[in-house]
Amino acid sequence: MRGYQVTDPRDRIYALLGLASDSTLLKILPDYSMSHTQLFTDVATAMMWHLQNVDHLSYCYRSTSQLELPSWVPNWTIQKRQMPILSNTFDASRNPLSRFEILLDSKLRLSSLIAGEILAMCETSWAVPKPKPESETSHTSKTKSLNSLARTVLTDISCLVRRHSGSYAEEEEIAKLATYTACAGLDLRSDGSWARHVHSYSLYSKIMRQDQLSDPAKLYCASVANRSSQRKAFVTKNGYFGIGPSSTQIGDFAVILLGGRVPYLLRHVNGNGYVLVGECYVYGIMDGELLSSGKEFSDIFII
Predict the structure, then answer these.
(1) Of 33, 148, 275, 287, which is the most buried if we count CB atoms within 10 A?
(2) How many angstroms from the chain centroid is the CA of residue 274?
């Protein structure tokens, strides 16, 4: 929806209604008397009811847009091209969205588990170098650029782990955490599909030593470039490591939301609830492990 130029932002929604086979289930009809804010909010609400998940939250980005939307509603006018961490291979909450409520002031009440509060993070986010015209950039140069970025990401995460964790003392344990987190748990395959990352210490070592890389290793570097771009690494007070949006701040909370396949970062607003910062990858809780800790879901309000 974000990739097309339209005169009226509402057409980003209405144009798809005739294309989607299940659009009637959302019960959204073209109505140009409706404001952009109301339409986008109604669509987000309908998706939660129909899909019984909160996947749409992975397309919510903090911005300076003039549209006054709740933080839990995607702004489809933002021209942002970022690969979501969201994947159907993850199942962080292990449960469908069985209950939620939209209050009169557009607050969203959801059930959540707090994984941890952000203690520290890398100072800057990573960015894929801007592409140059094909005539100016060889394939070899592009590959070297991606390899260099992957090495930077792995170095940053490894340094963060060494500074803030006593539980990952062995170099191979640090390498495993870093390689998983750098690609947010997924590897790019040669056919363009994605699969769960499989750790290899030799892969980590070769990238860090700047050795000649095999084709699978080059694909891993491309995976890191795709999945870490415009994100930064963080560690929580209770020792969880992950990557989140470039807007991540110390004091944000990594949480599991009922109906969420991936964790999300929330920022507390004095006496008012939380604002959604964005989706995140947290090593060690992507498959519902947090539910085995004995913690129970409790209600929160997202504004």
Answers:
(1) 275
(2) 18
Alpha-carbon distance 78 to 64, whole Å? 10
Query: Residue 149 pLDDT more than 50?
Result: yes
Tokens of 87: 């994947």
Per-residue pLDDT of 169-205, as tens digits, reads 789 999 999 999 999 999 999 999 999 999 999 999 9
Share of the chain above pLDDT 90, in %: 70
Sequential DSSP letters for 2-39? TTS--SSTTHHHHHHHTT-TTHHHHT----TTS-HHHH
Nearest to 70 by CA among 100, 97, 36: 36
CA-CA distance, 117 to 72, in Å (whole number)? 20
12, 291, 299, 300 from 296: Cα distances, Å: 38, 8, 10, 13
149 HSE (CA, 13 A, CB side): 29
Where exactly are the structural domains of the chain? Answer: 11-119+244-302, 139-229
Cα Rg, the chain, nearest whole Å: 20
The pLDDT value given to residue 28: 82
Ramachandran region, residue 250 (left: φ > 0; alpha: ψ -120 to 50; beta: rest): beta
